[in-house]
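Pipeline run #58 for the internal structure catalog. This entry was flagged by the ingest filter as a single-chain record with no existing model, so it goes straight to prediction. Upstream metadata was stripped on purpose; only the residue string is passed forward. Reviewer on rotation: M.T. Logging verbosity set to normal.
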Amino acid sequence: MNHDSYPEIKPGKKTLKRIYIAVMLLIVGRAIQAACRTDSTVKKEFQNFKDGFAFSLGVHPFGPWMIVGRDEKGRAKYLGWKPEGKKISLKMNIKNVEAAMLVFTFMESTSVAFARNRFVVDGDLIDALAIVRVLDLVEVYLLPKLIAGLAVKRYPKWSELSPVKKHLGRIVIYTRALLGF
């Protein structure tokens, strides 16, 4: 039997799934930046990072990615989607497109994806866990409660916040994420 006569089958690029993930990463990256200026918990998490801290979150091996860093004032800054030429302290890659779809269609929470070994982390694990907490908070702000309950490990008790403040925070984060500041 001649093995050379069989053509190599290459997997598809899954273009539509990658486009969806790229859009979600753009929204989440800008929402992290907006939440850092609006929510005191997210702001505190970013102030605990070292100067020059930046992290990337993406899909292995071909992307897409989002890069978010800490500016000189200790706030989150969305740095785009190209990791080339950037000093990244923490790289978090989802192992493949299918695993990323589970996370970004909110069928599986980020914490569960970590537990099921769907992430590869290159950097400080303490920083990675802080970023997971930030992602959970941002998802709570971006998503309705029913969907956010599926997307996060534990939905926060916002009993200390008035409904007006909670919804106003969501509106501010949505507006800043759309406008990019």
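catalog note: The chain is about 50% helix and 15% strand.
catalog note: Residues 15-38 form the longest helix (24 residues).
status: ready for reviewer M.T.
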